[in-house]
Structures are given as C-alpha cells and as structure tokens.
Design a protein that fits this description.
This protein is α/β, with parallel strands linked by helices and 437 residues long. It has 13 helices and 21 strands. The chain has two domains: 356 residues, Glycosidases (TIM Barrel), CATH 3.20.20; 77 residues, Immunoglobulin-like, CATH 2.60.40.
Length: 437
C-alpha cells in the first residue's frame, strides 16, 4: 500500500445525492454539483478527515452506476473542468481524492452498447457478456445495467485507459464498484498495467463476502470493503451479542496480517448506523470501534451529523440514505453538532495514535453486553471498553491483564468516554464506554 494511506481518513460522499440531483432519469437539470462540494472541503478538514471518497461522477442517466461515458463528468454535476478544479482545491489543502469506477457494467446508453444493439454483427458485441439464452447479461437482474465481457482484452484496455486518464489529472485512488462480480485475473491484469505509471495509487475493491485476502493478493488490490466488520459492529450492538463482534475482530486480525481493510459503519448502500442501532446511547460505541480498530476508516456523509435513514428494497429505496446537503456548511446551523464533536474527538485520538492503522485487537473481557479490547501494535496499546448492558463493567489487571510491560489498566489515561477509578479498578457505567491509553 502507498505510505500515504497509513494516515488517510476518508469522508465518503455520494455526489448526485449531495447536490440534490434527480436520479430517476426524468430530470437531468444541472445542480451546483462539484462546485458545491468545493465549499465543503474545509468542513472535511474540520471533521478531521483528509480524504474525499466520491461516489459516481461520470455521465449516466440515473443514479450514476449506469455509466454512459467514463471520460465525461455527468452534466448534473458540472464539467470535466469542475472535477479537475475540485481535485486541485482538495490537493491544495492536503486532501486526497478517490473516484468510483463502475467497471463491471454500463448503462444502456453507453455508445458501444448502442452500436452493438444496432448491428448484431458489429465488433462492439464482443465487449459485453451474454447469458445462456444469448442475450446480453445484466448485473444482478438489473435490466438497465449490462455486464462487460471481462474475457475480452479490449475491456481491460478500456479500464486501464479510464483509470490512467483520471490519475494523470490528479486523482489519488480508485474504488472498484462491484469488484466481486469481476474475475480476479481481470483486476491483476489491469492493475499491474496501471501501477506501472502510477505506483502511488490506492485501489479499493467493493467485496461483500468471500476470501478477502485472496482477492487482494491475487487481484493486486490494496484493500477491500470490510463488510464483515460493518455488520458485526451494528448487529452485535443492536442484538446484545458481543461474541459475534469478537469473531469478526479475530477475522479482521487475520486480514491485517496481509492487508489493511477499508472500514466503515455507513455507506451509500446501507441503512444508517443511527437507524441500525435503536438505542441512541450505543451509537458512540460503534463510532469508537471504527476509529480505534485496525483499518483505513471512512465516514459516510451525514453520519457525522447523526442522520437516520433506512434503505428499502424498492425503486428509489436508496434516496433516503443519499440525502442532499446545503450549499454551505454554515447552513447546517446546529444540526447534529454533538455528534460532529464526538467524531472530531475520536478522529483526534486516531490522529495522535497513527499506529492504529494496522493494529490488532484481543478481547480481555467478553460477555453478551460487555466488551473490553486491547488494541495494540508494537509497544503501543489502547483499551476500548464498551458496555451496552444494565450492569457496571469492571476492569482490572486480573481481567486477562494487559500484556507484559504495558501500563496497568488502573493507571491508564482516560482519552474519551467516562469511568470511575478506585484502587486500580476501572468501572464503566451501564451503557457507557471508554478509551484508555
């Protein structure tokens, strides 16, 4: 992985939603788009992040994942010049920029696909996959999304050209949408070529399940989306089952031996964390985990304000989790100020302990409603204590104890949360949490 990724914390934005663009295909009216995002770069820094992870920005007819031109910015968001300007403004502030590459499928208005539909004998037909009936294959049953034929070298050439084009214009990283649906050898071919010209690029693959480590190593990616940990964080917290989280943390440790996962508790495809976890007292617990566990963390826009929204399996079911933002940060007024401040606090802890990027964890206290972790790398360690039950959580050196040579639990500095401390014993109140160094 490029060295700069050890210090990046992403703020993930879905641009079409952020700008309030219509995504139904009925209204392609331009918005403030990428120019609007420029006014939020200082807000990103104020949050404590230093990376801007953008959802789709290329031309499409609806939600952006039906790309029709990889070399042109969607007119609803602005122009190519607007994207280049945003990248320059981000870089002037020390902010890295990641683009979302939808290279598994295209929208039906993609020019080579139109040519293929117009002439069954056209060479463009070979660019697209077919199903058992001989018709073009679609992505997971979505008729508007036609899958590429990834066995065709010309498809690899196209993806290399797209990635290279935008990297030369200043992009720092790529997210590979639906990477799990593409043959791994395709990625190794493409990325080996891309890295020859751009050795500092960070490439993240969207992978929902399966062998994360093999996908990274065989595909030549830097990381994949850590969906296992995402699910365990909210589900174990909501269902009062920290044993589920403990299992996921052991898996995360295994991944960290090979690569650093891309970690998150929210994104453009899932129900908001504040809606997943019904007890508001436990929202901070999830955020504390995200920002103290090994990984490259991302904050999904709106989560830093405590927004709630539920993803629904219907047409337009993503709209609630992809909201519009005001033109200027000042227009937010005091909405979500306390949640924003908590993000700043915990990101600040992350910044002062950069070794957390590749840190592993072990449970020193484990019960359905109580969990204490020692997160460590080398001689550094933190204790993360989470209590979602009605009984006091009690920690001392007798609780599986700290590692030899580390600071005793009772003497550790409180970095965040709330504790009571007496005679070397640390107590965390019911439904409380704490981070100790």
């Amino acid at each position: 992985m490029p060295a700069w990724t050890e210090h990046v914390i992403w703020w993930h934005v879905y641009p079409l939603g952020f700008a309030g663009a219509d995504t139904t295909g009925t209204d392609l009216t331009p918005t403030l788009g990428l120019r609007q995002l420029e006014s939020w770069l200082d807000y990103l820094l104020e949050l404590g992040a230093n990376g801007l992870a953008l959802g789709p920005v290329f031309t499409s007819l609806t939600h952006g994942y039906d790309t029709t031109d990889y070399f042109e910015v969607d007119p609803r968001l602005g122009s190519n010049a607007d994207l280049e300007h945003l990248i320059d403004e981000a870089h002037s502030r020390g902010i890295r920029v990641m683009l979302d590459g939808v290279f598994n499928h295209v929208g039906r208005d993609f020019a080579p696909l139109r040519a293929a539909f117009a002439d069954p004998a056209a060479s463009e037909n070979d660019l697209f996959a077919t199903d058992a009936s001989g018709r073009v294959a679609t992505f997971e049953g979505h008729d508007a999304l036609v899958a590429f034929n990834h066995n065709n070298p010309l498809v690899a050439d196209l993806v290399v050209a797209v990635m290279d084009h935008w990297l030369r214009l200043g992009v720092d990283a790529w997210r590979l949408d639906a990477a799990y649906s593409v043959p791994v050898p395709f990625w190794s071919n493409v990325l080996a070529r891309v890295r020859e010209a751009h050795p500092e690029v960070y490439v993240l693959g969207e992978v929902l399940h399966g062998d994360y480590t093999e996908f990274v190593t065989q595909g030549l990616l830097d990381s994949v989306t850590q969906y296992e940990l995402w699910q365990a964080i909210w589900h174990a917290t909501e269902e009062a089952n920290f044993y589920e989280l403990d299992w996921a943390l052991q898996r995360n440790n295994e991944f960290l031996a090979t690569f650093v996962p891309y970690t998150f508790i929210g994104n453009h495809d899932v129900t908001r964390i504040a809606s997943h976890i019904g007890d508001e007292r436990h929202h901070a617990h999830a955020l504390a985990l995200l920002l103290t566990l090994g990984g490259t963390p991302a904050i999904y826009y709106g989560d830093e304000r405590g927004l709630t929204a539920i993803k629904e399996e219907r047409f337009g079911g993503d709209d609630a989790i992809r909201p519009s933002y005001p033109a200027q940060p000042g227009d937010l007024a005091g909405d979500g100020a306390a949640v924003f401040a908590l993000h700043q606090l915990l990101i600040g802890i992350r910044r002062r302990n950069p070794w957390l990027h590749s840190a592993t964890s072990r449970s020193i206290l484990l019960a359905n409603t109580q969990l204490a972790l020692e997160v460590s790398a080398g001689d550094n360690s933190l204790i993360i204590a989470l209590n979602i039950g009605d009984e006091v959580l009690v920690l001392s050196d007798k609780t599986r104890g700290p590692r030899p040579g580390t600071v005793p639990i009772g003497e550790r500095e409180l970095l965040a949360g709330d504790i009571q401390r007496t005679d070397g014993v640390v107590r965390v109140a019911p439904h409380g949490w704490a981070i100790l160094r």
